[in-house]
Amino acid sequence: MLTRITPDHPVRSSEITSETQYESRRQFLAEAGLIGLGVAGMALAARNAGAQTPQQGTSIGGAELKPELTPWDDVTSYNNFYEFGTHKSDPAEHATRFRTKPWTVKVEGLVSKPGSYSLEDFIKPHKLEERIYRHRCVEAWSMVIPWLGFPMADFIKSVQPLGSAKYVEFTTLLDPQQMPGQRSPVLDWPYVEGLRLDEAMNPLTIFAVGVYGKMLPNQNGAPLRHVIPWKYGFKSCKSIVKIRFTEGMPKTAWSVANPSEYGFFANVNPTVDHPRWSQAKERRIGEFRRRDTLMFNGYAQQVASMYSGMDLRRNY
Ligand SMILES: Nc1nc2c(c(=O)[nH]1)N[C@H]1C(S)=C(S)[C@@H](COP(=O)(O)O)O[C@H]1N2
Ligand SMILES: [Mo]
């Protein structure tokens, strides 16, 4: 709903925010070709986003993080997306002509309803929500990012994994023509990531299709990536074309490249250092001071129980 602003109606910052969010969501749906949802659907999407207001500062929405949002310019120009080069500025520079339409996502493996979906069909059954999450790169920088997406659990339930499925594997597009970084053996392409099924089903885990209410810019993993806010950024796979349910632990691109430095779990943990640097602190992009890194990136209440009894030094 648009709030009319008159001199006798001082506008509160919360109203400005929701108005902007509503407008940007409408823009998103139009850009994404999802306008078929209709006005009622859009209002619903806007209301659902509102329902994410956190309780006691611990909820999944992270409204307590809103004042800390990393500016759009930083979120979209300081990126790791090695398919487009290894410097932070490469993806924004070299992904401008990356084609994300049409886009197909394959669902394979130990699942009752395998299939091949157009991006539109993949997204359409789900309600888009805004999720403001801390992002902590293994390189000890961090951001706070307002994603637009939907819970991965909703998707997983809809395709009905078999009882034998214990992990989910995600694969990025392989296309050296379009992705110049794939012409060098920096990683064993295509980029592959994986989650244990319970991690993938955790309410914090989302598929993201937008950021700041707009469609994902190519450098941020258009048109589909996932986000797991208690893990280091490299666990979040960009430009996903395949989702496979497996019984065994998937081989992931970074642990294949360097198993002693990057493990399967990659939970943010200030007490377990990377072999070459400490993980105790981080620098928020746009700030000078260094902040303490929080256990599970500040999401311990929602995720720590999944790892009870596990040695987090061995399972890094
Ligand atoms: N396909 C692919 N996905 C990727 C990467 C990559 O190089 N290729 N880099 C990862 C790393 S290390 C980080 S920190 C995040 C960065 O996401 P952002 O650019 O949206 O901040 O993407 C992750 N996903
Ligand atoms: Mo990263």
Give an overview of the whole structure.
The chain is α+β, with helices and mostly antiparallel strands and 316 residues long. The chain is 22% helix and 20% strand. The chain contains 9 helices and 12 strands. It is globular, with a radius of gyration of 19 Å. Residues 1-19 and 35-59 have low confidence and may be disordered. Residues 80, 137-139, 233-234 line the site of molybdenum atom (MO).
- Taken as a percent bin, the fraction of beta residues is 15-25%
Query: Which CATH class applies here?
Result: Alpha Beta
The structure class reads: alpha+beta
Total tally of structural domains: 1
What is the terminal separation in angstroms? 46 Å
Q: Report low-confidence residues grouped into runs of 5 or more.
A: 1-19, 35-59
For the secondary structure, the number of strands is 12
The outline comes out as globular
Task: Write the element-wise H/E pattern from the N-terminal end onward.
Answer: HHHHEEHEEHEEHEEEEHEEH
CATH-defined superfamily = Oxidoreductase, molybdopterin-binding domain
Helix content: 10-25%
Spatial extent as radius of gyration: 19 Å
Q: What is CATH's topology name?
A: Sulfite Oxidase, Chain A, domain 2
Report the CATH architecture: Alpha-Beta Complex
Q: How confident overall, as mean pLDDT?
A: 87
Instruction: Characterize the largest beta sheet: strand count, sense, and whether it forms a barrel.
Output: 7 strands, mixed
Bound molecules: the ligand Nc1nc2c(c(=O)[nH]1)N[C@H]1C(S)=C(S)[C@@H](COP(=O)(O)O)O[C@H]1N2, molybdenum atom
- Alpha plus pi helix count: 9
